[in-house]
Amino acid sequence: MADANTTYPTIVPLEPMDPARAAEVARLLVGAVDLHCHSGPAAMPRILGHTQAFQEAEDAGFKALLYKDHYYVGMPHCAVLKDIYPDSKVELFSGVALNNASGGINPHAVDHAIKLGGKIVWMPTFAASNHIQAYAAKSFPKTAKPMLPPIPLTVLDANGELIDEAKQICDLIAEADIILAGGHLHVSELFVLFEEAKKRGVKKMMVNHPTYIIGCSDDDIRSLVGLGAYMEHSICMFVPSRAKQHEPSDLVHLMEVAGADRTILGSDLGLTQAPKPVDGFRMIVSNLLDLQVSEEDIRKITSANAARLLDLAA
Predict the structure, then answer these.
(1) Max Cα separation, the chain?
(2) Radius of gyration of the chain (CA)
(3) What whole-number distance in Å separates Cα of residue 282 and Cα of residue 50?
(4) What count of Cα atoms within 13 Å lies in the side-chain half-sphere of residue 276?
(5) Which residues on neighbouring strands pair with residue 65, listed in sequence order?
(6) 17 burial class (0-12, 13-18, 19+ CB within 10 angstroms)?
(7) Phi and psi torsions of 5, nearest 5°
(8) Which of 223, 236, 273, 305 sits CB 3.0–4.6 Å from 242 for a disulfide?
């Protein structure tokens, strides 16, 4: 676990690497995919904007970058950036998070996102009942300006059954063949959601940071993988940052639990007192090399698995 007394600079710098290691890391990150980039503008303070995040991913040879905001869709600024930089090689994507600002668990918001080219639907994050209960003693996130208090959201009715709106959303996701992400729903909700989604033809399911907020045990991870889900682990929780929860060795264990073929690394970076997204990838790849993780597995979790979910060629 991170030291609660540790203080970090606004942008945590990448520590110097010896030239051989830096070259090895750079080579492994060519073709990387970040499904969880929190650049700005945003309601929360961010250490870099969408343009800088895109340019740094381009410079590092990333295959794709997917912008995540908890309150708005990002497809329009993806299109604007591609218009401004038509020769760029990195693909840009986004999706919709079903918090109160999007109308909650709202099929219309999902339909709109799909029509704009959205590639992922995140179930409620900061508005999830599970998230609100977890942070009942303190407010999180801290937005730059006060916002209305969230209305708690769950995908289950009083009988523990999936609500009709969630079923309709699953149908829309299945038809578009995009990613259903669990957001900050509790693991008990995820099982109900993913089981129904699978019945309705959803092929791409992903659990966001299963060890944070979600409450997944190792057995839960194995069972969710058995349903066809991928485990997306947030790099920010394994590298020096205010969000650090684990050591890199814990990530190796989590890879073993789910299997490298079902593990994805997303940066979840852009927040203050943390590295920039590409630097976060550099840090964790170097850590994994130190821990003797194979290049094949590193490429799977930083590139191939996420590229498959975006229908990009490996």
Answers:
(1) 59
(2) 18
(3) 19
(4) 18
(5) 34, 92
(6) middle
(7) -90, -5
(8) 273
Question: pLDDT digits over 157-182, tens only?
Answer: 999 999 999 999 999 999 999 999 99
Question: Which pLDDT belongs to residue 141?
Answer: 81
227 touches 194 (CB < 8 A) = yes
Say if CB 126 and CB 106 are below 8 A apart. Answer: no
Residue with tokens 């009715």: 157
Residue 205's beta-bridge partner residues?
180, 229
Q: Which amino acid is at 40?
A: G
In sequence order, the 6+-apart residues with CB closer than 8 A to the CB of 134 are: 213
| Residue 133 identity | Q
Distance between CA atoms of 60 and 42, rounded to whole angstroms?
A: 24
Q: Which amino acid is at 178?
A: I
| The residue type at 154 | T
Which of 86, 73, 151 minimizes the C-alpha distance to 119?
73
Q: What is the pTM of this model?
A: 0.97
pLDDT score of 1 more than 50? no
CA distances from 77 to 66, 82, 116 (A): 11, 8, 11
- Cβ atoms of 216 and 248 closer than 8 Å: no
DSSP secondary structure, the chain, as one string:
---TT----SBPPPPP--HHHHHHHHHHHTT-EEEEE--BS-SS-BSSBHHHHHHHHHHTT-SEEEE--SSS--HHHHHHHHHH-TT--SEEE-EEE-SGGGTSS-HHHHHHHHHTT--EEEPPSTTBHHHHHHTTTS--S--SS--PPPPPB-SB-TTSPBPHHHHHHHHHHHHHT-EEE-TT--HHHHHHHHHHHHHTT--EEEEESTTTTS---HHHHHHHHHTTEEEEEEGGGTSSSTT--S-HHHHHHHHHHH-GGGEEEE--B-BSSB--HHHHHHHHHHHHHHTT--HHHHHIIIIIHHHHHTT---
pLDDT digits (tens, 9 = 90+) for 12-68: 999 999 999 999 999 999 999 999 999 999 999 999 999 999 999 999 999 999 999
